[in-house]
Each structure stands twice: as structure tokens, then as C-alpha cells.
Amino acid sequence: MTPDSDPAHPATFADPANPAHRTDGPAPAAGGRHAVPGAARHAAAVLEREGRVALAGPWGAGKTTVLEEVLRTLPSGPGPGPGRTVLRVTTVEEDRDHVFGALAQMLSHCGPAQLAALSGRQNEVVDRILHRGADEPLAASEQLPARLAVTALLASGRWILAVDGAQWLDPASADVLGYALRTLPAPGLTALVTERVHGRAQAAARLLGGHPVQVDVDPLDAEETAALLEAHGLPTRWAGPLQSHCGGHPLLTSVSCTALARLPASQRHRPAMAGQTVDAAGAWLRSTLGEPARHTLMLAALTSRPSLPLLLRAGRSDAEEHLAQAQAAGVLSVDPASAVHFTAAALARAAARSGARPLRAAAHLTLARAVGDPVHEVRHRALAADLPDQGLAEDTETAAATAREAGERALAAELFLLAAEITPPARSAMRIRRLSYAAQEAASAGSVDIARQAADALTASRAEPTDQVTALLAVVDAHGQAISDLEPLLARCRELAAGHPDLLAAVELRAAIAANVAHAAPERALRAAGRAAELAAAGGHRPLQAAALTMRARMERVLGTADAPGTLAEALALGVPAQHSGIRNSAQYLAARHAVFDDRLTEARERLLELLALAEHEGDAEDLVDIWRSLAEVDTRLGACAPALAWADQAVRLSTAAGLSMGPAWYTAALTQSAAGSFAAALRTASCGARASQEEGDGLYVSRNLWVMGAVQLHTGDVADAVASLTAVAEAERHVPLADPGMFRWQPDAVEAFTCAGRLDLARALLERARPAAAPAGADSGPGAALDRAHGILLARGGAVEEASGLLHGTAAAFERLGLPLEQARTLLALGRVERARRRQAAARAAWEAAMGVFDDTGARPWQELTRELLDRAGGSAPATGPAPGARRLTESESRLADLICQGATNQQAAQHMFISVKTVEGMLSRVYRKLGVRSRTQLAAARAAAAPGREARTPPE
Question: Contact 705/666 with Cβ under 8 angstroms?
Fold first, then answer.
């Protein structure tokens, strides 16, 4: 049965006109084809080049959709058109038992004119395959006449053979089609074959012969999921949870989007896993695995840490075979340590629910005996319980505390909730305590569902205000950045907390965060943080006081006041450990962020790595994400492009897996991609981040994502869009006219964009507004130097090219002193453009060559490409030396430097002559040595002399 056929009416014979016989599920609804074009383009290119291609992917991956897209959109070559006929074969599982069933389906597409090319005997064979006439149908043993007839037919014209579902071809048809494909070359016979498989498409390879190119239909990534959500009119901020639910599986994601789109607006706060998604996942399991394998998977899904040894201990002697079958179906993976990982949470839930309640309870008891971990043993016993049990509830609470101490906050939340559920009604105080703990641990784990369950249960139990407020604030915390709609919840907390200073302090601290993140109101956030600090001090709550002071210092820094360092020092002096209330909220983390803002990057990196080690043992997902994001930012500025990309990728992955807000992670990913990946990827990611943040009401990261969009649009020459994006940022930032430019560095790019668009008055006005905030640190600050670069570009546009050149020279040197290589090289690019405007082509090439050297050393790929284009247009990458193989690789600037050094110039003299810094000379000279395989100036002179005999030594330049 196919995934979308009616279970009561299983298909018995493949019919290409019947959508119930598709092997890959229904085509996604509007917008569901976002993942298709890449695979379709790749497959079409392979088909055009090779004439044969295999499409592979698990159940519901979209193979049928890709196949149809290829057939529909091939522009030339082996595509449908005059003189070319598509022969389509679509199979279902039952077709394997129909002798020559696939051939009958294929031949049914051929009319009398096409069959006229066959001999009378061959037409008789075709009639027998099609069950026409009085003769007996062709038997499986009569493959030779079938081979000859089909090969003769396919040799008579130009055909595309499209086989959808090679895994279900009947053996007789597979033999005949395989013979024809081996006999007839492309482009006369072109073939596109799909196979439902996770891994190597062996059936398709046997059919196509040899080692055909395989194109895998990959899962959707978070950005593609966001695009699918947008197409359904759903919030793109749901991309993270949906990725976790569906694992990027196209059909599951499409089913989820369709189900969620039917929800009323009042229920669209956070996407719960749709029942339809679990049903579709269950259909996947039933269509690919037998009942014994599904029972093994039920056991795996019921435990928190499934593994092959655990399943064997639980009595599943065939577990290894069952897991291999599930892995081949794309349902799960087994890592080298034998741990089992479902590819989608919906598959795990469907597997867990594949048995009735009594069967699941028995499975939990089996796992309790097999698991070998006391915490998980108790978990399984609690999950098997149907009635209150005081002893078991106490054991479960103890297990929850153990999990909490081990930093397993999600497990602790689940166990505390389980303990509360099986607590006898007469022990209401114990039940309330356990629910309160469950809510707090759920907040740390970002588990909104458990936090809400606990909060609702506490409200229903008429718990004390302290417990209710604690649980309601846990719900707020679990929402992460998506707190724009939680004002009513905070208002309710204020009512309940009246007369309790420490509770009111906790409420005011959340209000400060909401004012900053959701309402872009830093003054309001500062006032709320100040109230929280005073209330916490009055209540004698030092950890809460430290958190409130940290928030106040953060807002003071945002507003550019001089009080921030003192307030932060006051918070640090309280001596509260960083992990007490979340590392990301700690004074220690803010101290690291201040170092980032001030371009004290080595110090920042050291602080962050210390906090990372702590977060890996005692932090939660949000702590890790924030630290990774900060490390990505630091390494990007330091020019460590590869590590920066890795940090950002980890942040995106964990944000997706943990269901965290995606706007911040996508902002960081876009920022690093704009330096180290590709401008196209950066623009796409920032666009997703801006949409997700807008939907969450997170104005902070709307502006940051728009900044990256505007910067990338500026770098790629899309000036009009850059102006639009950066104008939106400027409008959003008007409420903080004296904001610290080190925290959010959008102004220099906006000045440059306005300048390039010819809006010089606007550029000058913004420069004048931004300059005072950057002035205290002088020119040798990152924000100040970036504004100087923008000023230089503005001067050049106004005709003051000599003044612009001098300013840009000084700015490049300032960035070099600051240790900001990418900013230095970007300034050299601007300098080269100014020198070209001054008609100083050699100076322009020298600046660009120096920039290219920096971009090469740092691995800044998009900037390498941009600089290479400038050099190619200027003719600056031509060989400048004689026939020596090493010398031929030198760029013109490197060759000029080598000549100067051979003439006896010092590094200082060479720098002055080439209008670059001494440090740039040192780096360029190191590359020259590497390229020529020399280690000293004497060896360099010898190599140059050998490359060009007769070269005369000259006096070094003054």
C-alpha cells in the first residue's frame, strides 16, 4: 500500500494515471516544492550529461515530485519534446508478483504508430505481455523474446524511460528493461529511475547498469522548512520545532503544515506535534517494516537512550536485523557506539504508540529491568504505573533530583511531573512541590509543554502564590525570545506576587527582558531591571539581585551610559556562580560580551571558552547556543573563518533540535556566512531570521538580521535593496540615539549604502549622529575605524579623493593594530577603488592584492571571490616574472615586493613604497617565501636571479 492510498482499498496493479499508486506520497501542498528545485536541477544536469540517473530517498522524501519536476522542466537535451516520448512506469509493492506487470504498464503508453516498427512476431509478444488476444500471457520464462521485442521498440525512436519505484519492479520486467538499458546508449534511450532507500540505490543501479550517478533527495533544512511554513501562511519561527518533529522529512513536514494551517489563530502560539503528523509517521513505519521490527522500535522509542545492547537485554534477539531494516528505510540511524537515533520525533512517537496501553506498560517494565541505570529504571516503572503509588512517587522524585544534578534538565522536568502525577491525592503538599520543581526544570530545558502542564496543575490545586508565580514565570522563561504575547501572564504574576519582594523582583526582571527583546524599549527595560535589583536586595535574594544588576548593566551599555562598568562590577562582586540562574544571564557572561563589544577579542575568547566548559557540564541548551554564537562572532572578527562557521552551525543545529527561537541563531549564521561562507547563503539565512524574529515580536533580532541583509546587498551591488534594509534598521534604532555602536555595528554600512545610492546628505547626517558615540575610544576602536572607512568612501564620492585615500590608509592601519583582519582587508578594497578613481592603477592593484592576501589567509571565501573579480578586471593577477615555476605563481604585488627586497629594501621601505603597512609586507613576504620555496632574503635573491638572468641590482627606494 502506498503512503497516500486508502487502507481499505489496497492497490493491486500500478496505474500511472491513478495518484493512489504513487510510491512517494502526495505532492506537497502549495509551497511544498521548496526543497525540490535543487535535487531536480542536479538530476536534470546529470541526465543531460550521462543519460542515466538514479534518484534515492526514504519514504515520502519527494522522489516522485523530483522526477516529475525533471520531466517537466528539462530545457534541452534529453527532455520531452518533438521526437521524444516519455515512457512512465510507476510501481507499488504488490507489483512484484505480477509477471511483466511493469512492461505492460510501459507498453500501454505506445500507440499503433510506435508499435508499427516491430515485426509481426514481436507484436505478438507485445500483445501477450498486454494480455491482448487469444494467446496465453507471456510467461516469466520467456524473457528472451520479451528482451528482443522491447529492445527493438526502444531502438526505433527517442525515448525517456521514467521508472518510479525500482524496488518494486517484478523480476521479469527488471530483466528486460535492464537488458534494453545495457544495449541501447543515450541519448537514444535516456532513463530516470527512483528507488525508496536510505543509502545506495542498488535496485536502480542494477537496472541502469554499471555505476550510475545517484542523486539523493535530501531532507529539508531549517530554512527550507521556514519557506514551507511561510507558503502555508504559518509563522517561520516554527521552523525549529517543526524540524525536530519531522526531521526535515518533506512529506511529514507538508502534513504538519497542512494540519497547523487549519488551527484557529488563537491556538497558533507554539506548534504542538500534529496528530496527522504522527499518523503519517505510523504509515511510514507500517509501509516499510514488519510487525516484529515495529515492536523492537516501540521499545527503542519508549526509552530515553535507546541502543542495540539495551534492546538485546530487553529480549529482542533480532534487534540488530530490525535496526538495520529501519536504518535502510530512513527511520533511524545507529551510531558507532550502537546508540539509536530516530530521524524525526514524530517517528519515535508513532513507534511508541504502535502498541496499546497494556502492551506499552509491559514494555516499560521490561525496559526497567534491562536499562541498568537507576534513574531510567525508575522512569520506566513510573510510566508503567496506572495508579497513585507513594513509594514509587518518592523514588521518582529522587531520580528527578539526580537528573537535575547531572544537568539533564528535560529528564528532570519529566520525572518531577511523573512524580506529581502518581502522588496520592492525600499528599497534596508533596504534589505541589513536585509540580513546582517540574516547572522550574522545564524552563531551563525550554520545554513549554511541561511548564504549562505543571502551571495549570498548580492553578487547579489552588497552590500558594509563591508556587503559582514560580510556575508561571517558568512558562515565560521556556518561551525564550518569543515573549511578545506574554504580558497578560506577567500581569497575573504581579497580582499573585503582591507583598513578596523577591517574587516581584523575579517578575520585574522578566518584564525588563520583555521590554528589551519584544518591545525595543531599553529605557523601560532599564527601569524594570532597576526595580528588580532593589526588590531583590530588599528580599535578601543575592542570585536574583545579581541577575537584575546584570540586566541593568546590559541596558546601560545599550543606552551608552557611563554606569555600565560599575553596575557590572557590582553584580560580579556578589559572587554568584555563573550557572546559578543560567550562564547566559550571568554577570560573567556579560563581562565576556563587554569584551566582545570593546574588541578585546582575545580576552573575550578566553572568557567564553571558560564558560563553554562550564555550560557543557552544568548549562542548558540556551547557554550553549549563546556561547557558541558569541564565539562565532569573535572568530569572525579575528579572521578565523572556519571555526566561526563551525560555532554558528552548532548554534543553528541545537536551536533547531531544542525548539529554541531561530532568529538569533540565524542572525549569527548569516553574519559568519557573509564573512566565510557565501553572500547568497548569508542573504537567505538573514531573511529567514528577520521573518522569524518579526513573528516572535523580537525587534532586537529583526534589526540585526536586517543589518546583515543590507550589508550583503551592499557588498553584492544591490544598492537599492541595501538602502531599504538599512533604512528599516535606522528607523527601528531611532529610539536609542546614543546607543553603544560596539554592540550593534550597522551605522558604517548604512553610511556606505546611502553614499553609493547618491543620498549624500542622509549619509552625512547619519555619520554625524553616530560619531559622538564612537569618539571616546578614538580612531583605534572598531566602530570608530568603521565609521572612518565609511567617511572615506563618502569623501571620495564627493570628489575629495586625495583626502579619502589618506583617511583609508590610516583606517586600514588602525584595523591592523586592532587585530581585525577582515575589516582591514575590506578597507583595502575601498582604498583600491579610490586609487583607481585617482587613476593610480598600480596603487589600486597593490591595495587589492594586499586585501586578497588577507582574505586568502583567513579563508574569507565570498570576499576572495569579490576581490578576484576586481583584480581580473584590472588585470592584476597576471604573472609578473620569468619562467621559473615558483615565480610564475606570484601576483603582481608579490612580485613587486620581491623585487624591492632583492634590491635591498627593508620592510619599512617596501611598505612606504607600496603604500601598505609593515605588517602587510611581512605577511606578503611570507607568502612569497612559501611560493618560491625559500627561507631567506639571500635565497630569494638567488631564486629571482635564476628566474631572470641579467637582472641588475638597483638602489633601494628612499
Answer: yes
CA 95, 99, 103, 105 dihedral sign is negative
> Global pTM?
0.65
pLDDT by residue (tens digit) across 450-478? 988 988 898 888 888 888 888 888 888 77
pLDDT digits (tens, 9 = 90+) for 867-886: 988 888 887 443 333 333 33
**Whether 675 contacts 636, CB under 8 Å:** yes
Tell me how far apart the alpha carbons of residues 157 and 169 are, in angstroms, rounded to a whole number. Answer: 24
- When pLDDT is averaged across residues 184-208 and rounded to a whole number, the result is 90
- Residue 266 corresponds to which cell in the numbers above? 488563537
Gap between the Cα atoms of 364 and 358, Å rounded: 10
Spell out the long-range contacts of 102-105 with Cβ–Cβ below 8 A and sequence spacing 24 or more. 102/14, 102/163, 102/169, 102/170, 102/173, 102/174, 102/177, 103/129, 103/146, 103/150, 103/172, 103/173, 103/176, 103/177, 104/129, 104/130, 104/131, 105/14, 105/15, 105/16
Alpha-carbon distance of 758 to 756, in angstroms, equals 5
Cα separation, 139 vs 128, in Å, equals 9
User: Are the C-beta atoms of 606 and 570 separated by less than 8 Å?
Assistant: no
For cell 597593490, the residue is 846
- Sequence-ordered list of residues with C-beta below 8 angstroms from that of 111, at least 6 positions apart, any chain: none
pLDDT for residue 302 is more than 50: yes
The percent of residues above 70 in pLDDT, for the chain, comes to 89
Query: What does the mean pLDDT of the chain come to?
Result: 85
581: nearest Cα among 594, 593, 571 = 571
Q: Which three cell numbers stand for residue 398?
A: 529522587
Model confidence pLDDT, tens digit, residues 87-99? 999 998 888 899 9
736 φψ region: left (φ > 0), alpha (ψ -120 to 50), beta (else) = beta
DSSP state letters, 739-806: --TTT---HHHHHHHHHHTT-HHHHHHHHHHHHHHHGGG-SSSHHHHHHHHHHHHHHHHTT-HHHHHH
* SS3 state at 554: helix
Buried b (16+ CB within 10 A) or exposed e, 46-59: bbbeebbbbbbbbb
Encode pLDDT of 821-872 as tens digits: 999 999 999 999 999 999 999 999 999 999 999 999 999 999 998 998 888 8
The full DSSP string for 486-532 is: -HHHHHHHHHHHTT-HHHHHHHHHHHHHHHHHTS--HHHHHHHHHHH
Other residues' Cβ atoms within 10 Å of the Cβ of residue 680: 12
Residue 870 buriedness (CB in 10 A; 0-12 / 13-18 / 19+): buried
Q: How far, in Å, are 6, 25, 933 from residue 1 at the CA level?
A: 8, 11, 66
From edge to edge, which strands make up the β-sheet containing 189-196? 84-90, 158-164, 189-196, 52-57, 214-216
pLDDT (tens digit per residue) in 254-264: 999 999 988 88
All cell numbers assigned to 568: 557590572
